[in-house]
Amino acid sequence: MNVREQIENLRAQVRYHDEKYHGMDQEEITNYEYDQLYKELLTLEEQYPEFMSEDSPTQKVGGTVKRELRKVRHDVPVISLQDVFTKEDVYNFVKKVSEQVSNPKFVVEMKIDGLTVMLRYHNGKLTEGITRGRDQVGESVYENLLVIKSIPKEIPTKLPYLEVRGEVYMSNETFEKVILKQNDAGGKKYKTPRNLASGTLRQLDSRVVRDRNLDIFVFNLEISEGKEFISHSETLKWLEDQGFKTIPDYKVCTTADEIWECVSEIGERRSSLSFGIDGAVVKVDNLNDRRELGMTSKVPKWAIAFKYPPEQKETVIRDIKVQVGRTGRLTPLALLEPVILAGTEVSKATLHNQDFIDSKDIQIGDTVVIQKAGDIIPEVVRSIPEKRPSNAVKFTIPQICPICNSPTVRDENGADTRCGGNECLAQLSRGITYFASKDAMDIEGFGPSSVESLMSEGYIKNIADIYYLKEHRDELIEKGIIGREKSVDNLLNAIDKSKENDLDQLITGFGIKNVGKQTARELTSSFANIDDISNATYDQLIMLPDFGDTVATSVLSFFSLNSTHELIEKLKNAGVNTQSKVSAISKDDRFMGKTFVITGTLPNLKRDEATRLIQMHGGKVSGSVSKKTSFVLAGEEAGSKLTKAEGLGVKIIDEEEFNNMIK
């Protein structure tokens, strides 16, 4: 078989398995076997470009070629629901509905914590899939939805046009597997299944989506040309008959008591579910009743979303240990009797500082109530003194650093206690890890374990030593400290790449007390290079936006140290950029006096990149919306900040408008 015939044969095999998988929801070979076929075809086409063809699977979706997410206008507005938080709110909703329509029935459903999509079918075949987006426009993720097995690619009833709404999610089990795989590979870290599902669905390579095993629950029928329905529950049953995976365990209720019983039952079950939920939805069942009830300017009057308070459980504090952070801050950490909370095991929780421990009267041995802030971060809510054992022990943050035995000092005007030593190994290790983190120099694959291994072997003692690791490449490969040859080379390449970062990332990475990313950007917007910053006076610094005495003094103190000057010289010799790319261009203050809030996922810009552009042009970025907000830059799944902006009349812009403002 010649090369041309070999390529055509491979194309035929890939097309066949694409059709089986995408069109018929069947698999005859494993993902690995498919990927090997695809990879072999891709390699041959690259080696023999004269045989390339536009209809090759490598050039089309289904063969999973990378692509741009295209904008698509919605046929039905994608609206949010009114959030409620109490039993009284639910009963008031039922009362208002009952005053407007006769003998209403309600459907109670779980509110799946995922990413909303609209599926479009023409004559029974899936033709499009769109994300929620903003206003009346979403983004097509059709090619990625094709690889989600639970989405039917064809349905038995061939309506001219059908649109359904669903929630794409990732199960807790799949999330754990993906995170474990990403941790091993040093990839991006996600805190929740919802965030990972959202990031996955917007991937430009559907092979990634296929590997991550996303799922969907369909919860609403939006358009059904050629078929009429009386109730929402009727549509759900019909959708099930068509092969859709609908919201499980929904119930039809007639009274407020029945509704509340269902809402409470879902709340009790949520920690044992195999997927995440962020509430319960109560909807009027009859579709004519919905039309009669109508909408306010923002939400429908026929539905509400009940949001549960954080799940709380009791457990026992076995011990309290102290961690030393990169700034020398001593943080007490409660070691807990393990307990399942919001779906995961919790065995630790931060106690912040001595004032926190004293105010909540926390002792070792106490029974405490814990919850997850935002269903993510474990926190101690309160102690239960009446359950305190006789051998409980009061805890005081030590006066000697547990790592280096240096004296500890409490902040003069704060609650934190810090190590007073300059050579504390814990501070150095966490400082170097922070320097390499995404918030600072963004050296991919250089996490805490790599830092600790290299420090213990004597290869790095400070951040500048990172840029001299290439001198020890062969030793590192031979010893296997950070992996084999490929791992070492990947890390060294990432380190080299970081040399070109803008100066504000370097300043952030220094970990100067009271100086974060925004402060670093102010410095590099006003000074041309690191030497100018180092030589800046108090009077110059205090004039910068948002610089007070505390920040100015911290900057002066850091750059007055001989060790800082030695560090900078070593970084320069290694070729690390110390020039400000922002101040190198003419300063453009078009956003001076303007405050932006960024919310949701932008199509192309990372949030950090958008922040940098706003600040480069003299604007400020805030984390919350208020009457003083000038613009809300909104992307996919913008959420409550967008709703608040609409209520306050704040101007909302998308990425395209933002780019036009900069141009």
Q: Outline the low-pLDDT stretches.
A: 21-27, 61-67
Strand elements, count: 24
Structural class: alpha+beta
Count of discrete structural domains: 5
Strand content: 15-25%
Helix content estimate: 25-40%
CATH superfamily of the largest domain: DNA ligase/mRNA capping enzyme
Subunit arrangement of the protein: single chain
User: What is the straight-line distance between the termini?
Assistant: 55 Å
* Overall geometry: globular
By CATH, the topology of the largest domain is D-amino Acid Aminotransferase, Chain A, domain 1
The CATH architecture assignment of the largest domain turns out to be 2-Layer Sandwich
Rg, Cα atoms, Å: 29 Å
Q: What does the largest sheet look like?
A: 7 strands, antiparallel
Briefly characterize the structure.
The chain is an alpha+beta fold and 663 residues long.
Tell me the layout of helices and strands.
Elements: H1 3-23, H2 31-47, E1 71-73, E2 82-84, H3 87-100, E3 106-112, E4 115-122, E5 125-131, E6 137-139, H4 142-145, E7 162-169, H5 172-185, H6 193-201, H7 206-211, E8 215-224, H8 232-241, E9 251-253, H9 256-269, E10 277-284, H10 287-293, E11 303-306, E12 312-324, E13 329-341, E14 344-350, H11 354-359, E15 363-364, E16 367-373, E17 377-383, E18 393-394, E19 408-410, E20 417-419, H12 425-436, H13 448-456, H14 473-479, H15 485-498, H16 503-509, H17 517-526, H18 530-534, H19 538-542, H20 549-559, H21 562-573, H22 581-584, E21 595-599, H23 607-616, E22 620-622, E23 631-634, H24 640-648, E24 651-653, H25 655-662
Parallel strand pairs: 2-11, 21-22, 21-23, 23-24
Antiparallel strand pairs: 1-6, 3-9, 3-10, 4-5, 4-7, 7-8, 10-11, 12-13, 12-16, 13-14, 13-20, 15-18, 16-17, 19-20
GO biological process, one term: DNA replication
Cofactor: Mg(2+); Mn(2+)
Pfam families: BRCT, DNA_ligase_aden, HHH_2, OB_DNA_ligase
